């Protein structure tokens, strides 16, 4: 996963009004992520892609992101995991790992999640 790709997606989401269009954009993007990048990407997509000092938002709800992920991962345990972990990114990561064990058809991309996190922490 390249930061440029995440940033481009977030810009497109911020300019998209249709919830269904947002779900399609997110589904297309996260379908190519591995478990290491999924958590960070989800956090960025739900509105944390920009530095804290910036007022920009993607206007994507957790529900929209979860709907987009339903075609890629099994989300039946979402409520159970959210009650247990209380962190959306962690819940998605765990659901993805469980789904990844069941199907190995997703293609991991070369990535640098640390570089993305370093940029966001500035």
UniProtKB/TrEMBL annotation:
<dbReference type="Pfam" id="PF04675">
    <property type="entry name" value="DNA_ligase_A_N"/>
</dbReference>
<dbReference type="GO" id="GO:0003677">
    <property type="term" value="F:DNA binding"/>
</dbReference>
<keyword id="KW-0436">Ligase</keyword>
<dbReference type="InterPro" id="IPR036599">
    <property type="entry name" value="DNA_ligase_N_sf"/>
</dbReference>
<protein>
    <recommendedName>
        <fullName>DNA ligase ATP-dependent N-terminal domain-containing protein</fullName>
    </recommendedName>
</protein>
<feature type="domain" description="DNA ligase ATP-dependent N-terminal">
    <location>
        <begin position="3"/>
        <end position="121"/>
    </location>
</feature>
<dbReference type="GO" id="GO:0006310">
    <property type="term" value="P:DNA recombination"/>
</dbReference>
<dbReference type="InterPro" id="IPR012308">
    <property type="entry name" value="DNA_ligase_ATP-dep_N"/>
</dbReference>
<dbReference type="GO" id="GO:0006281">
    <property type="term" value="P:DNA repair"/>
</dbReference>
<feature type="region of interest" description="Disordered">
    <location>
        <begin position="102"/>
        <end position="122"/>
    </location>
</feature>
<dbReference type="GO" id="GO:0003910">
    <property type="term" value="F:DNA ligase (ATP) activity"/>
</dbReference>
């Amino acid at each position: 996963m390249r930061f440029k790709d995440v940033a481009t997606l977030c810009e497109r989401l911020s300019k998209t009004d249709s919830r269904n269009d947002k779900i399609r954009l997110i589904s297309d993007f996260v379908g190519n992520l591995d478990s290491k990048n999924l958590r960070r990407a989800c956090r960025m997509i739900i509105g944390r892609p920009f530095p804290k000092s910036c007022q920009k938002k993607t206007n994507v709800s957790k529900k929209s992101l979860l709907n987009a992920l339903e075609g890629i991962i099994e989300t039946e345990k979402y409520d159970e995991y959210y009650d247990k972990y209380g962190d959306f990114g962690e819940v998605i990561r765990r659901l993805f790992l469980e789904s990844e064990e069941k199907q190995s058809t997703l293609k991991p991309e070369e990535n640098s999640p640390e570089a993305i996190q370093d940029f966001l922490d500035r």
